[in-house]
Amino acid sequence: MAAPGRSDLRPDGCPEQVAGPSAGQVRARYGRAAGSDASTQAPRFPADRSTDGRTREKRMFTNRPIRPRRSVPAILLAALAFLAAGLVVASPAAAAPISNPSLEIPVACPGARAVIQVTWEGTRSARVHWELTDSGADRESPVIKMVARDASGAGSSWVFPDGAKAFTLSGGKGSSASGVDSWDPAGIAQFNHLEISVRNGADAETAQCSVVRKIYNYSRLAYTYALNLSDKSYVYGDYGPDTFDCSGLVYFTYNLVAGFPNWSRMSSAQQRSWAAAADADNNSDLSNLKSRDAIKVSRGELQTGDLIFYDGHVGFYAGGGQMYSALNEARDITTIDMDYTTPLGYYRVVGVTS
């Protein structure tokens, strides 16, 4: 297929299929080796913090209702019962869920179930909502722990209101607790993925079960890598490191993200077909997400870094109704109105591993 001519408004499109190097070859030559520290080998970019400079909000608290006055004997009996039962730590009050998270998944094992929502706010920050429920009748106490990790595996733990790095739920079957916060974890180069550990049992050595899930920040990291290439040129059929077409830019930048599994070089139409097939294979609660997956989103759910597909073109959603892509030979890599032509669909590339 011959490359179309130049145009200021219509992209040149992407090749039907172009053979390209594996992701490992791309990383070895231009990016990072798997498991290496992205701060030294992956393209560098500035710390991405919340635009309004928010500090961590303490949203987890306990509402205590006003109680009627008690007699002295009743108070003494209550105090004795408390001492006999041992110290009980009040659970956080229910926190409102995130209305449009980047991803929401269950993390569960028999007797303990957590639902995690995460909204990636950049390469270093996220808003996280967690809910932990005791789903068993075994009198064990569910425990949750969350750690933000960078490409090297270095981590920073979520700190709960009592200062602990793990939260233990008391109250028996049916009890639950939740919390929500914006999180800019210290001590890591980038927020590559969120690691959630859930177990049924306060003692880790005797716990009835345990499960770990990792939610990856693919879309924001790939988009940020793409922004670093804004001075590069458009060449039909190319996939980097200095010249790109639309699908080549998507292919190249996702392969730079630590933890992203290998994928082959595809045209924009093939990338859309892959995303649609991946979305169709998902369970309704997204409990079966894979290490490289996709979910379809509506126009109103678009978040920065999502992919917008057109007839013969693909680009990143840049926020504010804009689309960032390797457009054509006249415009190179640029940002334009996302409605410059009719979009065919919107997808978010996601990844979850055990």
From TrEMBL:
This is NlpC/P60 domain-containing protein. Residues 216-354 form the NlpC/P60 domain. GO terms for molecular function: cysteine-type peptidase activity. InterPro entries: NLP_P60_dom, Papain-like_cys_pep_sf, PG_Endopeptidase_C40. Residues 46-59 have a biased composition (Basic and acidic residues). Keywords: Hydrolase, Membrane, Protease, Thiol protease, Transmembrane, Transmembrane helix. The chain crosses the membrane at residues 74-95. One of its GO terms (biological process) is proteolysis. Residues 1-59 are annotated as: Disordered. It comes from Kribbella antibiotica. Belongs to the peptidase C40 family.
